[in-house]
UniProtKB/TrEMBL annotation:
<feature type="domain" description="DUF1330">
    <location>
        <begin position="2"/>
        <end position="95"/>
    </location>
</feature>
<dbReference type="Pfam" id="PF07045">
    <property type="entry name" value="DUF1330"/>
</dbReference>
<dbReference type="InterPro" id="IPR010753">
    <property type="entry name" value="DUF1330"/>
</dbReference>
<dbReference type="InterPro" id="IPR011008">
    <property type="entry name" value="Dimeric_a/b-barrel"/>
</dbReference>
<protein>
    <submittedName>
        <fullName>DUF1330 domain-containing protein</fullName>
    </submittedName>
</protein>
Length: 111
């Protein structure tokens, strides 16, 4: 099942550390099949406050996403982002083809 790494960047100190992080992050994806889906665009906000930007990276599955996040290559550059931005990051598993919102009701016992 496809998985995603999602980051919400609310405030970024765009100095040399962030530049280095951006220059080096692509290579950390390669061994894990990761690729950017969303990066560096202004979100079109329709509901509620959304300060900052969102980044979405796709991986073949959750195990590959976890392996990437824990990898020595990514861990080596991670402080460049975390120490120079106000941000949050999560890993989430996608849904299978054909998924419908009502499938969630079955999952939680409200069929």
């Amino acid at each position: 099942m496809t998985a995603y790494a999602i980051a919400h960047l609310r405030s970024v100190d765009f100095g040399p550390e962030i530049v280095r992080y951006i220059e080096e992050i692509d290579d950390t994806f390669t061994p894990y099949g990761g690729r950017f889906l969303v990066h560096g665009v202004e979100p079109e906000v329709h509901e509620g406050p959304w300060p900052g930007h969102v980044v979405v990276v796709e991986f073949p599955d959750l195990e590959q996403a976890r392996a990437w996040y824990r990898s020595p290559a990514y861990q080596a550059i991670l402080p460049l982002r975390t120490e120079h931005s106000d941000s949050s990051a999560i890993l989430v598993e996608g849904v299978p083809p054909g998924y419908r919102a009502r499938d969630y009701l079955i999952k939680v016992g409200h069929s």
